[in-house]
Amino acid sequence: MIILGIDPGSRYCGYGLIEIQNNRIQAAGCDVIKIKESLSLPQKLTVLYKGISDVIKEYKPDMAAVETIFYGKNIKSAFTLGHARGVILLALANSEITINEYSPREVKKSVVGNGNASKEQVQYMIGKILKLEKKNISQDAADALAVALCLFNKLKFAAKS
User: What is the CA radius of gyration of the chain?
Assistant: First the structure.
């Protein structure tokens, strides 16, 4: 089974894939879709949709997990992120991939054990769990792998219940 995790963003959208075989997990790929700041919002959304669609076509994930919006003080950023999430969800739905959504706090708690963990702590734990070199993975890609691991952990614990 392949799980795609997505850390949405309108400038940098992280994605990470984990592959599960016989209850063993390994990273199957991760990167960031970089979107030029100079583009208009519709152009950014088009780049994001195409990027996620390309990832889906290449890796053919069985399931996906997407991080929900963090509600900060900047309402404009929240709306822009909402648009980005909408495009991501559309790309996944068009490919008939089961979608799960988790809050940033839930993802951090699942991977680090602390819902208030820093990005550095998440990056460190992802490196340890998946045996990756920290230098080779961006924080956005690590966050996306953490979202995928969150779904894996939820599935694993649901199966034991």
Answer: 15
**What amino acid occupies position 55?**
V
From first to last of the 161 residues of the chain, give the pLDDT tens digit: 999 999 999 899 999 999 999 878 999 999 999 999 999 999 999 999 999 999 999 999 999 999 998 766 678 888 889 999 999 999 999 999 999 999 999 999 999 999 899 989 999 999 999 988 766 788 999 999 999 999 999 998 777 76
Question: pTM for the whole thing?
Answer: 0.93
Q: What is the DSSP string of 54-76?
A: HHHHHH--SEEEEE-----S-HH
Q: Would you call 62 a catalytic residue per the annotation?
A: no
Asked if 133 is an active-site residue, the reply is no
**How many separate domains does the chain show?**
1
Query: Which of the following is catalytic: 31, 133, 140, 143?
Result: 140
Question: Which one of the listed residues 37, 62, 67, 133 is annotated catalytic?
Answer: 67
By residue range, what is the domain housing residue 146?
Answer: 2-160
- To the query of whether residue 67 is one of the catalytic residues in this protein, the response is yes
